[in-house]
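In the previous lecture we treated proteins in isolation. Real proteins rarely work alone, and many bind small molecules. This record shows how such a complex is specified: first the sequence, then the SMILES for adenosine-5'-triphosphate.
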Amino acid sequence: MIEAPFEHPSIEPAVELMEVAKSYTPLDPVLAPINLTIRRGEFVSLIGPSGCGKSTTLNIIAGLTQPSGGTVQVMGQSPARIRRRSGEIAFVFQDATLMPWRTVAANVALALELMRVPRTERLQRVTNILSVVHLTDVADKLPRQLSGGMKMRVSIARALVTEPKILLLDEPFGALDEITRQHLHQELLNLWQWFHTTVVFVTHNVFEAVYLSQRIIVMGANPGRIVKEISIPEPYPRDPRFRSSTVFAHLVDNVISALGEGGTA
Ligand SMILES: Nc1ncnc2c1ncn2[C@@H]1O[C@H](COP(=O)(O)OP(=O)(O)OP(=O)(O)O)[C@@H](O)[C@H]1O
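The predicted 3D structure, ligand included, written as tokens:
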């Protein structure tokens, strides 16, 4: 695909968490009050030990989980309101969760059907996004006929076909082999630059977080909290050789040290 010119994120906030706390049960806080602002168009990763509340934070941004305290704004509105405006916020999970009886194209078209986009426009948009993620040849196949990497591409295409303002990804590449993962890193970055969407990416993988992000939010556990924010000043488009540079190694070390400061779950 043609690479879109990189644009710096705007200074306008896409996501604002102000003193956001969460307890699922009384006296057992999962998230201590956290404050986090993510700018429009920014690519931010959340990293931290298991159980520190990364998915909970993502779910709160998505409006799928209610915080116990604090205020959340997404594109200047409450998450509940943003969710009602279909297609503005999209979620990609580790499990691609495709409908097994629908073809690749029909899976990708689903969100547009729900938004009642007319058929001709729907077909056009599905065709375009499948071409961008290199899935044109498998448009008529069923999910069980695809590899894990292809299923994840379908899941990402399904999320992006509505051109969401915010894309939330919860360990999307955790189950994939390293080569497939690296291909998808490149594709995700291309898509991000193309759509100028705001990305919040949850991962356990320090290398992945450094390669992809403009900013990494390192979280600690018991209770979940933000330990450190680390900027990744490397320009885009990212060159795969970045992974073997000294700058990369240094940034990975910084993130690992910050994870050490946060303790384990
Ligand atoms: N619906 C729920 N009800 C009760 N407790 C929950 C619920 N969801 C999450 N938790 C608890 O909240 C804590 C944080 O979970 P969360 O999934 O947000 O962490 P995480 O950092 O994403 O973990 P992982 O990296 O293992 O996916 C965990 O102790 C988990 O057991």
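Summary for your notes: The domain at 13-88+164-263 is CATH 3.40.50.300 (Rossmann fold). Residues 24, 30, 48, 50-56, 204 surround adenosine-5'-triphosphate (CB under 6 Å).
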